[in-house]
Amino acid sequence: MTVGATTGVLPSRLVIGVLALQGAFIEHIHYLERLDVKGHYITALAVRNPEELESCHALIIPGGESTAITRVADRTPGMLPALQAFVADPSRPVYGTCAGMILMADADGVGGGKRKNDGSAWGGMTGLRVWRNLYGGQLESFEFPLHIPSLSEPHRPFNAIFIRAPAVHSLKQSNAEIERLASLPPDCVPAPPPADSPLGEPDIETTPVVMLRQGRKLVTSFHPELSGDTRIHEYWVKHCVVAAQ
Ligand SMILES: NC(=O)CC[C@H](N)C(=O)O
């Protein structure tokens, strides 16, 4: 939490929600509590119902299991439509990690699930199409010292942790540009998704991309909240949340 406001400017209070229906939400809350963003008080809130969501300026959708998160949201009165509306609104800052990235893809833009209805997402990153579990199962989890030029101390690698991670299948043309903020080197990238799926031909240029931004929306296919490094949270709050106030 930051108390130091800049001279003559009152500090703003930011309520940042972390969707707490399933998955790794508590770690994100601890990270937000550690963030020091000049001139802003940050309150981290575990979000479990539409009223809590409505009180937030911004939202983090954690990693976990995208189908389970949708299922729990669907059983909570009013929650699924409230989340879909919040996430799809370009003025609302939202950060999705791993399962959260899957849920921020286009509604018809998810492949790789075992069942037919595994593939529906909530939108937010217009044009994003993802493939679930392309990096393999739990046993294929790995860490990589990722180069992310937009972070503070850009020369210090970010220890990115990939757990049953999704990959970018392709990026459809949309009015809002999607920035590619970080990619894995070729020897860490799995074979692209199959060409004969309902999502069509994958774009092999986008398979290595693991961090993307579109306006106030950010997604990473890895778990930043497990690495002990708050720089990605800091980046999102400074560039997507504070800039939106
Ligand atoms: N670590 C994760 O969030 C894994 C995501 C999971 N494979 C899914 O499809 O939802």
From TrEMBL:
<feature type="active site" description="Charge relay system">
    <location>
        <position position="223"/>
    </location>
</feature>
<keyword id="KW-0315">Glutamine amidotransferase</keyword>
<dbReference type="InterPro" id="IPR029062">
    <property type="entry name" value="Class_I_gatase-like"/>
</dbReference>
<keyword id="KW-0456">Lyase</keyword>
<dbReference type="GO" id="GO:0005829">
    <property type="term" value="C:cytosol"/>
</dbReference>
<keyword id="KW-0378">Hydrolase</keyword>
<comment type="similarity">
    <text>Belongs to the glutaminase PdxT/SNO family.</text>
</comment>
<dbReference type="GO" id="GO:0042823">
    <property type="term" value="P:pyridoxal phosphate biosynthetic process"/>
</dbReference>
<feature type="active site" description="Nucleophile">
    <location>
        <position position="98"/>
    </location>
</feature>
<dbReference type="Pfam" id="PF01174">
    <property type="entry name" value="SNO"/>
</dbReference>
<feature type="binding site">
    <location>
        <begin position="64"/>
        <end position="66"/>
    </location>
    <ligand>
        <name>L-glutamine</name>
    </ligand>
</feature>
<dbReference type="GO" id="GO:1903600">
    <property type="term" value="C:glutaminase complex"/>
</dbReference>
<protein>
    <recommendedName>
        <fullName>glutaminase</fullName>
        <ecNumber>3.5.1.2</ecNumber>
    </recommendedName>
</protein>
<dbReference type="GO" id="GO:0004359">
    <property type="term" value="F:glutaminase activity"/>
</dbReference>
<dbReference type="InterPro" id="IPR021196">
    <property type="entry name" value="PdxT/SNO_CS"/>
</dbReference>
<feature type="active site" description="Charge relay system">
    <location>
        <position position="225"/>
    </location>
</feature>
<feature type="binding site">
    <location>
        <begin position="163"/>
        <end position="164"/>
    </location>
    <ligand>
        <name>L-glutamine</name>
    </ligand>
</feature>
<dbReference type="InterPro" id="IPR002161">
    <property type="entry name" value="PdxT/SNO"/>
</dbReference>
<dbReference type="GO" id="GO:0008614">
    <property type="term" value="P:pyridoxine metabolic process"/>
</dbReference>
<feature type="binding site">
    <location>
        <position position="132"/>
    </location>
    <ligand>
        <name>L-glutamine</name>
    </ligand>
</feature>
<dbReference type="GO" id="GO:0016829">
    <property type="term" value="F:lyase activity"/>
</dbReference>
